[in-house]
């Protein structure tokens, strides 16, 4: 049955307007973006098929265009729509972390770093550079590696901190494996970077590891 024939309170768009976006399931939210179903299936049915095929919302949104075509009725246009929505979300979070804004919410910082780094299939090491009032200067991806790790050079991190005239920074890198616990190499690298940056008067406030669950914070675990 077409969604247009559903009771108004059950239609995704009307439900969103009446109860807010948080009241919708993943399939209902996805159906709003898809707009139309295919022969014999509503947009919600098609959305459920997609989520089942990919194993959830995150792997669906991180799928390549080639993988996207595995679901019957889904083509390049829908892939482009979802990619545009993802990028809008990233830019929205970036706007909230614009230059000159102080870091007042640890949750906001986690959310931003997760959005920037979680989707990569390879390891990326980055830094959020801050001034002496902990206002954001800029975010930079500094090193990239394979799924086995990235080669991070303290000298280059120091150079970038001096270039931005940063007084402090927050380090972050992702674990494509999904496990956010730090390795021995992660702990050693964090110590080395902290020591190298301290020599030029730059503080390392935290180091986040981005995995599948909540980001791991070195500061919260007493490692910085």
Structure keywords:
single chain; 224 residues; alpha+beta; 9 helices; 43% helix
Describe the secondary-structure layout.
Elements: H1 12-19, H2 26-34, H3 43-54, H4 57-61, H5 65-68, H6 76-96, H7 106-117, E1 124-130, E2 136-144, H8 154-163, E3 168-174, H9 184-198, E4 203-210, E5 216-217
Helix pairs in contact: 2-3, 6-7, 8-9
Structure, explained:
This protein is about 45% helix and about 15% strand. It is an alpha+beta fold and about 220 residues long. A five-stranded mixed sheet has the order 2-1-3-4-5, sandwiched between helices. α9 links the parallel β3 and β4. The radius of gyration is 21 Å and the shape is elongated. About 25% of the residues are buried. The mean pLDDT is about 85.
CATH topology of the largest domain: Cytidine Deaminase, domain 2
Output the strand order for the largest sheet: 2-1-3-4-5
- Gyration radius, to the nearest Å? 21 Å
Low-confidence stretches: none
CATH homologous superfamily grouping of the largest domain: Cytidine Deaminase, domain 2
The termini sit apart by 57 Å
The CATH class label of the largest domain is: Alpha Beta
How much strand content do the residues show? 5-15%
């Amino acid at each position: 049955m077409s969604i247009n024939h559903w009771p108004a309170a059950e239609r995704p768009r009307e439900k969103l307007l009446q109860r807010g976006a948080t009241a919708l399931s993943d399939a209902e939210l996805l159906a709003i973006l898809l707009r139309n179903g295919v022969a014999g299936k509503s947009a919600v049915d098609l959305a459920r098929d997609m989520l089942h095929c990919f194993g959830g919302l995150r792997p669906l949104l991180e799928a390549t265009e080639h993988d996207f075509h595995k679901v019957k009725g889904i083509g390049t246009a829908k892939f482009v729509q979802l990619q545009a929505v993802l990028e809008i979300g990233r830019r929205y979070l970036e706007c909230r972390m614009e230059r000159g804004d102080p870091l007042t919410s640890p949750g906001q910082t986690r959310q931003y770093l997760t959005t920037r780094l979680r989707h990569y299939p390879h390891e990326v090491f980055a830094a959020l550079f801050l001034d002496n009032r902990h206002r954001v200067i800029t975010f930079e991806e500094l090193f990239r590696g394979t799924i086995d790790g990235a080669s991070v050079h303290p000298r280059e991190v120091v150079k970038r901190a001096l270039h931005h005239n940063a007084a402090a920074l927050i380090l972050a890198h992702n674990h494509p494996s999904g496990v956010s616990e730090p390795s021995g190499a992660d702990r050693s690298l964090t110590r080395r970077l902290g020591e190298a940056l301290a020599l030029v008067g730059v503080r390392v406030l935290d180091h986040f590891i981005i995995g599948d669950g909540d980001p791991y914070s070195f500061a919260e675990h007493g490692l910085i």
